Amino acid sequence: MTSRPQHIFGYSDRFAARPGEALSFHVSCEYVANYQASLVRLRHGFTGQAGPGFLETAVPAEFEGTYRGAWFACQPGSYVEVLDEAGVLGAPDDFLIEAHIFPTLPQGTRSGHFGAYHVTQNSFGESSGFQAVLGNWSEATQSGYALVLDEGKPTFIWNDGVATNKLCLDAAVEAHQWYRLRVRIVAGDGKVHLEQTPVSNIMNRLSALATGLTPQSASASTSGQWSTSEAPFRIGALARRDGYRWLSANAFNGKIGGIKIWRGQSDPTADLVAAWHFGRSSRQDGLLLGDVIDQSANKLHGRCYNAPTRGVTGHRFAGVVDDFRLVPDEYDAIHFHDDDITDAEWPAAFTFKIPEALPAGVYAAKLTSEDSEYYIPFFVRAGEKKADIAVLFSTATYLAYANDRIAFEANGAEIIVSRTPIIDRADLTLQDHPEFGRSCYEIHNDGSGVVFGSVRRPILTLQPKHRAWFQAEGVWGLPADLCIVHWLEIMELGFDPITDEDLDREGSELLQDYKVVITGSHPEYVTRNEIAAIDQFCSRGGRLMYLGGNGFFATVSFDPEQPSLMELRRSDAGTRPHQSPFGDRRHTTSGETAGLWRNKGLPPQRLVGVGFAAQGFDRCTYYQRLEDSHNPIAGFVFEGIGADEQIGGFGIMGGGAAGAEVDCYQPVLGTPPHALLLATSGPLSDAYLLAAEEVYESIPGIGGTEQPGVRADIVLCPLSGGGGFFSVGSIAYTGSLSHNSYDNNVARMTGNVLRRFLRPEPLDVVLRDAAIA
Q1: pLDDT of residue 249
Q2: 760-765: long-range pairs with CB below 8 Å, 24+
Q3: Could you give the CA distance from residue 252 to residue 258 in angstroms, rounded to a whole number?
Q4: Are 203 and 194 in contact (CB under 8 A)?
Q5: Contact (Cβ atoms closer than 8 angstroms) between residue 306 and residue 314
Q6: Burial of 265 from C-beta contacts in 10 A (0-12 / 13-18 / 19+)
Q7: What is the pLDDT of residue 708?
Q8: For residues 742 and 745, what is the distance between their CA atoms, to the nearest angstrom?
Q9: Tell me, what's the pLDDT at 772?
Q10: What is the 8-class DSSP label of residue 450?
Q11: Is the pTM of this model over 0.85?
């Protein structure tokens, strides 16, 4: 008899806190009776034999101890819940309900996709094909009412105090077509009428009727009595009781909008009960965040849960203006998904108030039992006393890749990495728990792209021992950035961690006390505020060390009301796993248009001298010095390194410092004319292909052996005011620091730069002195 696998999962309410602030930790256990919680400082994240291995240090903490294991459901499915304290929506007596829908999976999701965590039976014995448009129907008590799709057929269900009733149209709706649904409840006649009418929309069909779609209608008798439901009124899902809370049930896939409810049967003269407008905002900036407005006098405002996608085109979209703030009536829609999950809503297992004496750094709540282990990483920010160095951890990129299942689910995963993907036990565990949500590199069940990432759910790819599926001996994300952490420890230099959320929120003031800012290995996704802050930091004399590749590439935004929530939409350019349709490409959390920063006038070459050129995952390579490396300005960079010495022909990732995703020097895109091109990568294979944004026609010859633009470049650039930047243009770079116990030319060169950057003299002082002489 096989034993059941034991697992501990958890998350924190946010990534970072300062001394005096408290973090909450939320834990769920599978077949674990008790677990031990402790605090550890994370020092190095690679578990293989190369380098120092995985390193952590135990730190005393007030929460340390043994806790009882308890399991909590993590239920996907987004919805709007309406606050109806007066019970206005409790009984639909004499209601006229109108809603517009754009179903994307009218026949239901993949059968059993979420196993026991997701599929719930409704009163008619159906599961995955039953999707809620709106209502307060309670399965447990067989009470209330709801407008739903039942195997794609518009259906109204209710309980008249005697029995459960169901009025269903004969024909199922088609996917990706707008419809108007109406339910008329005529108390005097004892009748319920249900109507479905196709709606023309320029973005789906110019003439719905010309395609053969026709209106449908049906009627049924009712007693006029209504059972009272204890469930809340929701749009996009129903509710099911799970102990102390209501979870999502029968979630809708597709867009819903244009919802109004009248009491009476004549639209112009009837009393308006509710009129939710999904395109309008109560905020002065017009952003569409968590709140939903009811324009009726009843003010039955709603709140979004699990971040359904707002700022999407509605049934009145004209196809011209793509900013939801300018034409809100055309954006009166929300796209719901049955696999949306941005907050597991588990109760807090324990909290941790950051002690004043705890040094800034990278920490984790370590949870262990006899057969399981789980880390919840977090960052302790600086208190009043700050270090000279700040490390910018790429938390936006962590969230973009969070829980990615690309190795299992991406078409052509083998082609991407030029081999069979490498998987480990954590990848298998993630496959068994789809309820933890998808990465922004994947699509929802209905085929639309995932655009939100959140801290408040288990993120298995954030484990400090996580290995990248595309590298046999690779690190990615946080484990790769912990290579920098341990290198600084070896250098005996302290640092303060900052996150993308911190920098976006606090701007350039956050950086003003630091001499040097070091990026992580892959700061791919950043906000406009971050770019501006780093630019100001360097222009005011600060020094930036960009120790990564494919950085400052594409747009993200953080929800100003929920900083734990990040938005990442995709436009129609660049390397991308999916893209949003026209009209849906503007971030509702910031107003930013989606896409590459180079296409919005802020290419990374202007900020750090290099920009994304190619990616490949078979092998990495070395750097070779170029003529500019012998310029006196760059003399400090190569102290202790031979004139013709190859740099970084070793490393954890692919055996070299240059590779995985690489950036090159490109004056045409903004590399400053006085930037020094110090080194370029050695040969890369044809597994490395030129970045999509550089390919204007479908032509051969874009591989590493054929295309000179497929390379990684190291750049040094002094700036006026004494500042400057040093960029390495490779994700694999940090994996080479620890080779031979840090006695290697990558660690030596990087240490040379850091020590010089900490000194106050301008970086071009050599030339100035020569000119004076």
Answers
A1: 95
A2: 760/515, 760/722, 761/722, 762/718, 762/722, 763/543, 763/633, 763/716, 763/718, 763/719, 763/722, 763/723, 763/724, 764/633, 764/718
A3: 16
A4: no
A5: no
A6: middle
A7: 86
A8: 9
A9: 39
A10: P
A11: yes
Q: 249 pairs with which residues across the strands?
A: 238
Q: Which residues contact 762 (CB under 8 A, 6 or more apart)?
A: 718, 722, 768
Tokens coding 472: 């046999």
Contact between 27 and 35 under an 8 Å Cβ cutoff? The reply is yes
How many angstroms separate the CA atoms of 460 and 444, rounded? Answer: 19
Q: Which helix (H) or strand (E) holds 35?
A: strand 34-44
Other Cβ atoms within 10 Å of 675 Cβ, number? 23
What is the side-by-side order of every strand in the sheet holding 610-621? 658-665, 610-621, 689-690
Tokens matching residue 528: 């406009």
Check if the beta carbon of residue 544 is closer than 8 Å to that of residue 753. no
Q: What percent of the chain has pLDDT over 70?
A: 92
> What is the C-alpha separation between 495 and 390, in angstroms, rounded?
5
Tokens of residue 685, six digits: 């294979």
Residue with tokens 């350019």: 573
Q: Residue ranges of the chain with pLDDT lower than 50?
A: 1-2, 110-128, 206, 767-773
3-state secondary structure of 32: coil
- Give how far Cα 344 sits from Cα of 15, 252, 454, 583, Å: 16, 19, 10, 30
326-335: b or e for each residue (b if 16 or more CB lie within 10 Å)? ebbebbbbbb
User: DSSP states of 284-318 as a string?
Assistant: TT----SEEEE-STT---EEEES--B-S---TT--
DSSP letter string over 327-375? -GGGG--EEE-TT--S---PPEEEEEEPPTTSPSEEEEEEEE-SS-EEE
Dump pLDDT digits (tens) for 443-476.
Answer: 999 999 999 999 999 999 999 998 877 665 678 8
**Of 276, 336, 279, 290, which Cα lies nearest the Cα of 589?**
290
22 burial class (0-12, 13-18, 19+ CB within 10 angstroms)? exposed
β pairing state of 516-519 and 389-393:
parallel
Q: Containing H/E element for 749? A: helix 745-758
Beta bridge partners of 179: 101, 198
Q: What is the mean pLDDT of the chain?
A: 91
Q: Which residue has the tokens 């046999």?
A: 472
**For the chain, what is the total number of helices (H) and then of strands (E)?**
10, 42
Burial of 142 (0-12, 13-18, 19+ CB in 10 A): middle
Which residues are bridge partners to 689 per DSSP?
615, 703
- With a CB cutoff of 8 Å and minimum separation 6, the contacts of 749 are 637, 638, 641, 647
Q: Could you give the CA distance from residue 71 to residue 31 in angstroms, rounded to a whole number?
A: 8
Output the pLDDT for position 574. 84
Query: Cβ contacts of residue 206 below 8 Å, gap of 6+?
Result: 200
Whether the CB-CB separation of 74 and 28 falls below 8 Å is answered with yes
Nearest to 533, CA basis, from 549, 517, 557, 545: 517
